[in-house]
Design goal:
heterodimer; A: mainly beta; seven-stranded mixed beta sheet; B: mainly beta; three-stranded antiparallel beta sheet
């Protein structure tokens, strides 16, 4: 079975850095894009960006370009989402998801989510 | 404000049917496939429908999807209390380079 296991809850202060992870198993990790999705408390899902672990090709939503960095280490089947300087507005649940393709693209498998709280 | 417009909420009694609309434009729904996701309370989203109308693995046939022009619809028949959740549509938006968009979500309440 495909599994995406994300790192645990994070509580940080504004200005701190953070890197959260998403480890894939049960499929060829290098061959599928991994997407990151943000969900602020009580709000809708938002697309952050996507990475192809095979060659680290990375694309960002215009709303998140320059705000976060997405990376991957295919040797350990893990994708990452990181911030260099957190803001209170980054407080949210972050999900990773495996993108699949049939006629069109869709997010087939999801991680359990990582809750990030940024507060002074 | 989401690019894809969904009603904030719909409700019906157990056993009844609900439909959830997802309205977009020619740059997104009009020229791309739509997928739908279910998010039960305090859980991660789960794929329900992809390619407009194909059910994901182990999704019962009570759930159906369709698309016409720049709108898509999710239908749920034989409503059950376990269907109470938020539902999101999603697709590609060609107006902006490499941009995937979600709807604003619809809360389904079983009366």
């Amino acid at each position: 079975d495909v599994q995406l296991v994300q790192s645990g809850v994070e509580v940080k202060k504004p200005g701190e850095s953070l890197k959260i992870s998403c480890k894939g198993s049960g499929y060829s990790f290098s061959s599928y894009f991994i997407a990151w999705v943000r969900q602020k408390p009580g709000k809708a899902l938002e697309w952050v960006g996507i990475i192809y672990p095979g060659d680290s090709d990375t694309r960002y939503s215009p709303s998140f370009q320059g705000q976060v960095t997405i990376s991957a280490d295919k040797s350990i089947n893990t994708a990452y989402l990181q911030w260099s300087s957190l803001k209170a507005s980054d407080t949210a649940m972050y999900y990773c998801a495996r993108r699949d393709y049939s006629g069109g693209w869709f997010l087939r498998d999801w991680g359990q989510g990582t809750l990030v709280t940024v507060s002074s | 404000q989401s690019v894809l417009t969904q009603p904030p909420s719909v409700s019906a009694a157990p056993g009844q049917k609900v439909t959830i609309s997802c309205s977009g434009s020619s740059s997104n729904i009009g020229n791309n496939y739509v997928s739908w996701y279910q998010q039960l309370p305090e859980t991660a989203p789960k794929l329900l429908i992809y390619d407009n109308n194909k059910r994901a693995s182990r999704i019962p046939d009570r759930f159906s999807g369709s698309k016409s022009g720049t709108s898509a619809t999710l239908g749920i028949t034989g409503l059950q209390t376990g269907d109470e959740a938020d539902y999101y549509c999603a697709t590609w938006d060609g107006n902006v380079s490499f941009n995937w968009v979600f709807g604003g979500g619809t809360k389904v309440t079983v009366l």
